[in-house]
Each structure stands twice: as C-alpha cells, then as structure tokens.
Amino acid sequence: MHKIDAEAIENIAVGAALLGTGGGGDPYIGKMMALSAVNEYGPVRVISPEEVDEEAVYTPAASMGAPSIMIEKMPKGDEFVRVFQKLEKYLGKEIKGVFPIEAGGVNSMIPIIVAAQLNLPLVDCDGMGRAFPELQMVTFHLNGISSTPMAITDEKGNIGIIETIDNVWAERLARTATVEMGARALISNCPCTGKEVKQASIHNVVSLSENIGRIIRSKELETQEKFNQLLEITGGFDLFNGKITDVQRNIEAGFNRGKMVIEGLKNDTGEQVEIYFQNENLIALKNGEPIALTPDLICLVDQETLAPVTTESLKYGKRVRVLSLPSASQWRTNIGIETVGPRYFGYEYEYTPVEDLVKNGACV
Question: What Pfam family is a match, any one (predicted)?
Fold first, then answer.
C-alpha cells in the first residue's frame, strides 16, 4: 500500500491523459478537483488488486458524456460522492473501495476525489487500460459482469438508478439520460466483488499512469530521453511526427466525434496521417493505409513537452508526435475485438496488432 499525495496526482493526471488516447476529459480540470480533495481530506490509500477483500463490494465512479462539455460546464462538486452513495444505498451493502473505470484526465481523478472524501482505498486497476467511449467497453463486460445497477446524476441534483437486461442497454439508456442532463453526467456502475476485481480488471493502471507522468514531467531528462523512456515503459511505437492541419469535431449523441489531419515534418515530410475519433482516437491512417487500429492505443503528445494532447484540445498548427501502445491482452481476444475493434465503430478494417503493422512496414 502507498498513498497518493499532491505530487502523485500531478503525475497520474498526465500519465492517465496519455493512456486516455485523447479521451477521458481534460487532465487539468480533473487534477484541480483531486488536489482540492486531497488538500482537504489527506492523501489517498492505494491497494493492489491482490489486497482486496474477495467478498466485499467495490465500484468505480466516473464522468460520462462528451469530454469537451466539461470545459464549459464545470462540476458543482458534490456529484461524485452523491452518486457513489446512491448506488451503495440501493445495493444495501457497504462499498469498501473505489477504482477508475478507465484511464483519462478526468476519469482517473474522480475515484481519487471519492476515496479522499469517504476515506476509502483506491484499487490500483481499471476496466480498460486506456479509455473507450461506451459503457460496455470494459473488461468486466468481457467477463460477464453487469454494468448495472448503476447510479447516474447531474450537477442540478437529478439522480436515479438504472437496471438493464444487458450492458448494451445500459449504455443506450445512460447515454440518453446523459444527453438530457446536458451531455455530461456522473455515474457509478459495475458493482463487483473483490474476487471479480482480481479476475476481470486490468491491474496496476494507476501505478503505470503515475510512472508515465513522472517521466513526462521530469526536469532532469532531455525530451528525446523522456520519449525513449516513455516508449520503453509502455512498449509503445513512434509512428509519426507532424503538424495538425485540419480538425473536424462535432458533439453528437453525447460524444465528441471527428477526425484530424496531420502533415508530416522532419523524417515524415511529404506524408499525411488521418486520425478518426469518438471521444478517443480509434484509427490512424497514413496515406490512406492503417498504421494503428483500436483497441491499440493511439496517443498524441506535444513535440516539445510530450504533454498528452486530448481530442478537445486539438487545434490547427499544433506540432505533435503520434505513438501507439499495444492494448491489454483482454482486448485482443475474439470478444474483445467484437466489442471494441474497428468494425464495431463502422470502420471497414480487420484489427491488426500495431507491432505487426510496424513489422510489415506500415509506419516506415
């Protein structure tokens, strides 16, 4: 067990924003809320999945909706604990700990806020190892664990419980409620036992986020050395170096949807990459051919600082490096590809692991 203090929050916010593959919300907003909670209530205890009580109940707390909405529609502040306690009351069982449902600038921070305010441990795991846009896109779904009952609330005080026949219906009904709540809501879902956390979650994501953030924020290392360490710790691949020359982005049905065009610089001069996203970056095409495909992570970082670039912060002229990280093994199964592969999102490509695309020369 270790504790998350202000310095750890700074690192986790940056690292989780990278793993968030462009989604998961603005890291600055999430960080400031978590820092405020830790300053008021003290550091948060972190436990590994191996340390959970197998018979106890654990659940995540998260934001749902279009990440860009939170830039203008700030949380009131009491939603996180309110939604958590609503689910606890409905279950009639004490919830013994909290964890992130995904990596992302905001959704990595909300469980820290809940843990600080309720003096609960934060479990070092999540349900994606990255961020995905829909509720059923979690490893708990792959293991037959229900997203419901789930609690949902907004900043006005509207709150409710959703129970559904399956996880796709949970996404549909919760998304509809989220749109009516102003395209952003707070949820607590996927209540599960400690045994299920051990079996179904992706372990050590909080720790990985903290280590990634520590590298990116280091003042002792040069940019290239940071980048090399970043690729080493994540097993990632350097795909492209360029400047954003076009961004098309809309808010549709509670999602940020769109694409960006990146024109090559340096060794990639004369080449072009298009990246399509739905909250998160989903596919990257170089000169029309795939160089990375969901569920593998497609991440953008600032050329100079290596700060992660989220889909709501894309702008013309920004110079970025595109990298891809292999997804967790759970996503590379048949059910994983069926749930989050390119064809699910409407792209007519067969999933090919990024390491195979690189090996076959797609990124040269």
Answer: S-Me-THD_N
